[in-house]
Amino acid sequence: MTFTFAQTATYSLAALLILLLPGAALLVWLPGRHGFLSRLADSVGLSVALTAITALIGFLVELRFTRQLLTGLYGFCALVLLAGFVWRTIRSGERLSISWKGALVGVLGLAGLAGQTAWRLYQARELLLPAWVDSVHHTLIVRVIMENGGLPATLDPYLPAEFSYHYGFHVLAALFASLTRVEPVVALLWFGQVLNALIALSVYRLAMEVWNDWRRAVLAALLVGFGLHMPAYYLTWGRYTLLTGLLLLPLAMAALLRVLRQPVDRASVLVAVLLTTGVALSHYTALLLLGFFTIILLAGHLLQSRLPDESEVQPRRWLAAWPVALSALGGVLIAVPWLVRVWQQSSSQAALSFVSPLSSSQSEYWDYILYLLGPAHNATWLAVAGLGLVWALLRKPARLLAVWGLLLAFLTLPWGLRLAPFRPDHMAIVLFLPASLLAADLVFNLVELAGRLPGIWLKRVTLAAVILAALAGLGWGGWQTRDILNPGTVFVTRADLDALNWVRENTPPEARFMINTTGWMENIYRGVDGGYWLLSYAGRQTILPPVMYTYAASQFVAQTEEWAEQSSKLTTCDDVFWKLVDEFGASYLYLRLGQGSLQPDALVNCPQLVNVYRRGGVSIYEIAR
Question: Which residues, 6+ apart, have CB-to-CB distance to 452 below 8 Å?
Fold first, then answer.
């Protein structure tokens, strides 16, 4: 994945427009004295949330977002932002002055974000198309949104399936692709890595709200960017929707904390409501985690006893608790029209079960969870975070955060209560969020303890040891994650990409392709090579479409899975092969050497298969039948 300087500049401007302008246009009118980086983080979160809400409104009123309308909306945001600056400067009597210290912090912060983004793009350097299974249907959704001019009701004409999916990322990617006039796959790769980098900024914002200590906040952000295995590893899965949800989650948590501390501040309530809505529309795992945090926040606030007069305490507690509860509930209510649509589609997956700790059936699953947690650099930082969790449980500033992290740790275990469709491995891959915060807190608790040691040399040596150990841990994590991609999740080689482009230019739009398939999980199947990308990238139907086919009618799902199972066992052009060709109406066959059960050597004696393309190990056959 390489880009010219002009492309990088264009993409960066588009990303700034999408991720900063709407939120900044609102935030400039709201009172607040947060630091530059915290306001920058809130601007990003509000931009994502407002974009998702606008898309929902457009869906409900059946509004098509043309390029002209988008230009008008962003132009309006620019005018609102400019007017807000004028209003704050003149009407409020504020002078536009910037201290050298504030400017230095801003420059260093922006340089850090630019460096983090460059690092994320470097980690994706080997990809030609996004990796693994999820990326295929994310690309298809972005394509349909672009062609529809907004959220679609269905995925027609590509799939006969209703569209009811968390869409926060897809709308942003569609906007980016439209503004820059690039392929949806470029939006996933480039813009997706920008979102990944910005999670560090969100964690910084939450840390500042919890401790109001820039040192802890910076270290937590660096741990997310370099020290821990997640979320960098999301690249190899194509988990772009979860990235968007986790970008918003710390910001929503910080907003709810702010509301608890300033319950009469309407601006804080508004920000909390909007960010909660953004979480609800971006990813349901993130919404679940925000729900847990809200409950813990309210319970902890109501149970604490700071004043001796209980008759005086209780009204004050409830007075501060209500705005938090209403902010969280209000955000969810705004998203209800879409959440109801999702529930109607996916309610059958919801279930509450209990897995006994005595059960031995989860041993392989536990091994997989340990694999997710287990790279040595990641396990080391998780251990540090575990000590930080114990420490935080004993101290007030981060106690609620520690309880939330402890709950996530318990939900990572394959035993106990399970709330389907959420799984323990889902919790394992989001543990980086509390871990980064609690590990950073422990490091600076140790720094503070070292500062109290007797003797100047003992104090200096201990301080140096703690700081150097933290820096070494960051460097270790960065070195280990420089090649973050798992080769087993990369479907597309250069030969595949060339073949996909050839298909675009040399086959009719109605062409239908046989491809190699394999089992993925439960009854769901996936492709094994570039042929799996034919629908999302080239618009050509395949015998196994992206996994969004599971959202179609049960008859279509059953037929697709039956064909996919049979395709996964093909070894030659036998009767089963021709039966599949006739049932599906296939006109082409896509194969890559070494991938899948059906290989080119087995088709030498198949006269009705005409080899029309063979390069780099990829073979495409026209079915002359």
Answer: none
Residue pointed to by tokens 């709201």? 30
Residue spans of the domains in the chain: they are 5-480, 491-623
Query: Of 178, 176, 177, 151, which is closest to residue 166 (Cα–Cα)?
Result: 151
**Tokens for 306?**
């700071």
Are residues 586 and 512 in contact, defined by beta-carbon separation less than 8 angstroms? yes
Sorted by sequence, the CB contacts under 8 Å of residue 476 that are 6+ apart come out as 227, 377, 380
Q: Return the ∠ at Cα 429 (arms to 426 and 431), rounded to 5°.
A: 110
Architecture of domain 491-623: 3-Layer(aba) Sandwich (3.40)
Cis amide bond preceding 231, omega within 30? yes
Burial class for 506, CB neighbours closer than 10 Å (0-12, 13-18, 19+): exposed
Residue 189 in tokens: 């790769």
pTM: 0.94
Query: Closest Cα partner for 623 from 577, 575, 592, 558?
Result: 577
The size of the chain, in residues, is 625
pLDDT one-digit tens code per residue, 432-443: 999 999 999 999
Q: What torsion, rounded to 10 degrees, do the Cα atoms 419, 424, 428, 433 define?
A: 10
pLDDT tens per residue across span 479-528: 999 999 999 999 999 999 999 999 999 999 999 999 999 999 888 999 99
d(CA 382, CA 436): 8
Is the alpha carbon torsion for 141, 147, 149, 151 positive or negative?
Answer: negative
Buried b (16+ CB within 10 A) or exposed e, 372-385: bbebebbebbbebb
Residue 541: which of 582, 518, 508 has the closest Cα? 508
Helix (H) or strand (E) holding 622: strand 618-623
